Amino acid sequence: MREWFKSGSPWIWLTAGAAAAAILAVAGVLSLTALRGLGHFWPKPVAETTFKERDGRVIGLIGEIREREEVAARRLREAGFDIPGNDAFAERVLLKMGNRDVTGVDFRWFPVPLLGEVKYPKDLLTIERREWGNFYGHLVSVKEGGQLVASGEAAWPEVIKRVARASELFKLILSIEKHDIGKVNHGLEQLRLQARGLEIKGQLSADRKADFDKQREALNGQFGGLQERLSRLRNDIARDTLVGRVMDGKEVEIKLALVADVYRANDMGLPAKISHYVGKLGEFIWDEPREANTEGGIFPAIFGTVMMVLLMAAMVTPLGIMAAVYMREYARQGPLIRVIRISVNNLAGVPSIVYGVFGLGFFVYFLGGNIDQLFFPEALPAPTFGSPGILWASLTLAILTLPVVIVATEEGLARVPRWVREGSLALGATQAETLWRTVLPMTGPAMMTGLILAVARAAGEVAPLMLVGVVKLAPTLPLDSYFPFLHLERKFMHLGFHIYDVGFQSPNVEAARPLVYATALLLVVVIMVLNIAAIRLRNQMREKFRGLESV
């Protein structure tokens, strides 16, 4: 045994076991996140049953059974439920009842012993609404302008047809509001800023003012025409309604203009469920959020996260490389450089919220405020760059990840053999040419390693972003078709903050929980994609200089 320990084999097996445990832990976390997140989009069967309340009344229930668990029967009896038998434990289920406009709650726990027979009728509807969450119930009839169109089973084909029509009208209305009216409002704002700028300079003549008034009048005319068109479309989309019967027998009339989707989960086959699942997953990735971020998609958050990381990488990479090159190649190695290196290493351990406070004070208030005074006086007192935005968020994260890039680049420069530099200088190259054509290309893999580490950290940071640009909802993306196209002063959404907001600030925790898992998985995927792209580039650099490094 002693010889075995001396051979070092136990430590090899211990290291391998630790690596295997770490891999299993990561795989377990990703599997749980994927199961809880991606399973949310699968169409779930809708149950119908009865329940005996504390006062003895029997009520009807319709909804999705989301969770099951065993609890102490004593706790249920103390809560006033008449649990039969003498069992120590009783099962209870979490039912998503929906119909929040009727019942006031989405989810409720029910003891299984007090439930009646659970059935899954094929005619039960699941209606995803743009307001008030899901609706569950039986289809009664379809109306157009208050007049009955179809009832009973004949109403189902009418619902499908009219929901599709309402969805197309809704998309058209949204397009007019976002693009056409947005273009008019942008034009009016630009006219206002131009007029204000000339007024500040004392150059607003009567002719220029009349020209501005003429252009403004033309834009207001376009706005009026668009408003009339919107009014007609809204009246058109509001004509169709459906009547559904909820669990207590009450009939509820729902406007199809508020219906995002309708389906019968209990009557769907496997191909229909797969098609539904793919569609919902696509909506989650490409649509905008709704219902306080607990429903809809997260595309603005994906776009904001990727754009912020790319801007941060474009800022931190040259800055970190130049700092490392100066300290390693040009600066005299003495006490000052040693102090700077120690300071850089210590900066890597500073809490991220400190960087957020620095970014808010220096970038937003100082730099942004002065930029507004110099270049955007016509917009004051409304700030342009003097408020949190994606530029300041990217700069703050660039400062946060700068030590990582500096240290990685310095280590790469230190690994370049001395004879490479000496050979280049002996052939007549200057120090700058040696650095640019020989040393830096060989240091490329180390630079990419620093960038990979920087991206991995920056993409998941949340605390500093809450101070310098990220918001709960930003329907206007930082990139659009209006000059200068890339609007670095705008606020943005971020996947990490979206997880925090949905998980801890949502008024409907149970409804938001699956979206937290799905968003977390998507954030991991985004980081992996960015890192894989950087790793592939780093590997190509390594292959290019492998022969030279091995000499």
Describe the overall structure.
- It is a single chain.
- By secondary structure, this protein is α+β, with helices and mostly antiparallel strands.
- It folds into 3 domains: 90 residues, no CATH class; 157 residues, no CATH class; 251 residues, MetI-like (MetI-like fold, Orthogonal Bundle).
- Helix content is 60%, strand content 14%.
- It contains 16 helices and 12 strands.
- Strands 5, 6, 7, 8, 9 and 10 form a 6-stranded antiparallel β-sheet that branches. Strands 1-2-3-4 form a 4-stranded antiparallel β-sheet. Strands 11-12 form a two-stranded antiparallel ribbon.
- Strand 8 and strand 9 form a beta hairpin.
- Helix 9 packs across helix 11, helix 10 crosses helix 11 and helix 12 packs antiparallel against helix 13.
- The radius of gyration is 31 Å and the shape is flat.
- The mean pLDDT is 88.
